[in-house]
Amino acid sequence: MFCVNSIETLIKYYDFFQKRKEQEKHNLKIATIFSYGVNEADKDAKGYINFEEDFDNYDLNIVAEGPSVTETEKSSIKINSHTREKLDEYIGHYNELFGTKFSTNNSESYYNYYNDISKKVKERKIDILLVVNMYLTGFDSKTLNTLYVDKNLKYHGLIQAYSRTNRILNEQKSQGNIMVFRNLKFATDQAITLFSNKEAIDVIIMKPYEEYVKKLNDAYIDLLMITPTVNSVNELKTEEDELEFIKAFREIIRVKNVATSFADFKWEDLAMHEQLFEDYKSKYLDLHDKVKTDRQKEKVSILEDVDFELELIHRDEINVAYILQLLIKLKANTKKDAAQTEKEIFNLLSSEVHLRSKRELIEKFIKENLPLLEDTDDIPEAFEKFWNEEQQKAFNDLVEEEKLSPQKTQSLIESYLYAEREPLRDEILELREGEKPSVLERKRIGERILGKIMGFVDKFINGMEKAA
Asked: What are the C-alpha distances in Å from 454 to residues 334, 397, 409, 422, 433?
């Protein structure tokens, strides 16, 4: 979101962005909305208008000039006429972009336009939203992570505006970014002190980028004290040693997650280079897989209760569509380039959390199926056929090994995927055919079956949705 001090300024910004887009300098999706009433100026720098509450007070029609109109009102009418035309122009761009039919012709269409922008922002379909006052209060979007400010803000208005970015999405978005083009340091400290206390400034406002670089470098030194090399992770003798490594590397990914939210972030600033991070991450994930396997084998481990915080190293953009593109690239490449692409795929399968469970199958497809295909256009269909066959085979093995009802098991998996609620132990045990386990065995057998079902879902279903 980009908030500016007046409609006139907003128009200049929007026209600049639009001109650059027409020159193919960028491909950002820009949207805007503003009122064109007489009292749009924000002279008190309060920085907010609650559109939901104040909508009925907006004059959405240009008043016709009559005998009693004063010179000031004439000036306002002229300005409003211009800004309404510009807004209609900008709404036209929006309609072309999203296939909608909004306008300022009536209040209902204008209000629907406001609601549609809100929805598109939350869905991350708008890259930059230009505003003067609207959306700076009462608008919550977890996906909104950056506020650009080119206006004076103070007190309640400043806190409200800044708060648009601080809705936590997940572990990857632990804070918002504020990019200010005016000197608002004093106003920011003043507002935080007024609404919280002076000591809260250091808690609410993030430290400078350089401090997180230092923290990362310090955490890297701590890691080297435990595991001087990547291969030394394999030589850790006890689970206590493994736990120390897990905690040390987990601290690195925590701080890195914050550091990467800065536009200034560069791997060159760190003592630990990117490939080394990926190599250690692979070992970290190996330990996570080991704990998960031990749990399914009912083996007790002190690592069972460790939170690996895998959300911090998950990337949504790496999905089945991405893998298929790499497979097509692999098939199309020369022998020399193919070896590099194959290595790239295998490294990706090792370092991406949600692909590790799929690694063995994807490698099998590359080794056994890919050489038999002559046309790269056949790869998506062949991969889907291969995956479905392997999934069915694994499902049959699961229900046979655990003596489960195939129909009930399929229904439970579908319910889990729809509701995203992990099945209860009683629901799991109801899947078994024949003799039911004794009271003493229920917990052990229930957890074993649940682990296998969750492993099946993770391997064959999660992350395998087709790209739209």
From this structure: 39, 15, 12, 9, 20
d(CA 47, CA 43) in angstroms, rounded, equals 9
How do residues 114-163 score in pLDDT, each as one tens digit? 999 989 988 889 999 999 988 787 677 777 878 999 999 888 888 788 87
Sketch the domain layout of the chain as residue ranges: 2-204, 209-312, 320-460
Task: Report the distance separating Cα 409 and Cα 395, nearest Å.
Answer: 9
Rounded Cα distance, 4 and 302, in Å = 54
Q: Domain spanning 2-204: which CATH class is it, in words? A: alpha beta
Q: β-strand 146-150 against 177-180: which pairing, if any?
A: parallel
Closest CA to 257 of 177, 172, 175, 176: 172
Handedness of CA 283, 289, 291, 294 (dihedral sign): negative
pTM of the model: 0.45
Contact predicate 19/13, CB 8 Å: no
Q: Is 31 exposed, middle or buried (0-12, 13-18, 19+ CB in 10 A)?
A: buried
Q: At what angle do helices 439-460 and 274-296 cross, to 10 degrees?
A: 150
Was domain 209-312 assigned CATH 1.20.140.10?
no
Which regions of 94-157 does DSSP assign to beta strands (E)?
128-131, 146-150
